[in-house]
Design goal:
Two copies of one chain form a homodimer. Chain A is mainly beta. Chain A has helices spanning about 70-80, 145-150, 160; strands at about 1-10, 25-35, 35-45, 50-55, 60-70, 85-95, 100-105, 115-120, 130-135. Chain A has an eight-stranded antiparallel barrel with strand order 1-5-4-3-2-6-7-8. The radius of gyration of chain A is 15 Å and the shape is globular. At the A-B interface, strand 2, strand 4, strand 5 and helix 1 of A face strand 2, strand 4, strand 5 and helix 1 of B.
Chain lengths: ~160, ~160
């Protein structure tokens, strides 16, 4: 078990690309979500896959259990689950002694770009890079499970679309 | 992936015990159930554990994906899921060239005993042992997921309780 603690921000511009790695394509879907847990299948670069169970408790800190599974199982499970599939490319960007992850969504969530950073405890100091905008850690619309059900392109709030 | 095809019967008497192995204690709970999938955590004899994802399609044949997980994860996941826990001891009993599994429930499902046999295809011939009674393959009340939510001791139908 890992205890996942992270903060999430909208990305305001493309300056992060200068320090980013080549990125990994992630294709993921939620098999189930209850009031207690969310169960996710993720395929990385089409060549490896992981089954993840996260506690559904909102906010910064969540329990997380991850198990590698065969990619062919992952494809079948995504099909079986019958839910929406999220497509994004995840880049790693070092900043301020931490590794930030920038998720560039495609498909139904095209034009959404968010940055996440994992921290050691909820009180840890984070120095946001100059290319991030508004923090959305506690905004449930940006939970991946929410984006699968209600993708970004269906949102109407122009403040949100400005991303800052 | 396995394709699980099985038939399930009520057990009418104790004659099966003569041919049974020592049995294994199973403790299991459902993390989630949707219209598409059921996700189960099972601890075997307190010393090993498995995460199973089954297609929710009713009837004899179901897709099934199984992944071993650390028992300590299993305990935490059962706790996290917040659902009911099923306790049973499973015995293997050879009969007619097949291995039958007899599940003796305890806890909330005390006094329920069912026998299952896995078959190669839905049309395969099964010779029911003399110690089984009525077939309940298609009765959703006997699905393990149902027993977790509505245990046997809460049932009121006396025909069912007679087990034959």
């Amino acid at each position: 078990m890992q205890h996942e603690i992270e903060r999430k921000f909208l990305v305001a511009n493309d300056a992060w690309r200068a320090g980013a790695d080549a990125g990994h394509r992630l294709r993921q879907a939620y098999l189930a979500e209850t009031g207690q847990v969310a169960i996710r299948v993720r395929v990385v670069d089409g060549s490896s896959a992981v089954l993840t169970i996260k506690s559904a408790a909102p906010g910064v800190s969540r329990e997380e259990y991850e198990y590698p599974i065969p990619p062919s199982d992952a494809d079948a499970l995504i099909e079986l689950g019958g839910g929406s599939v999220l497509d994004k490319t995840r880049f790693r960007v070092p900043h301020g002694g931490r590794t930030w992850e920038v998720d560039v969504y495609s498909g139904e969530n095209e034009s959404l770009v968010v940055a996440e950073v994992e921290i050691e405890d909820a009180a840890a100091r984070v120095e946001p890079p100059p290319w991030v905008g508004r923090e959305v850690t506690d905004d449930p619309r940006y939970y991946a499970a929410s984006l699968a059900k209600r993708p970004y392109r269906l949102w109407s709030d122009p403040d949100v679309r400005r991303g800052a």
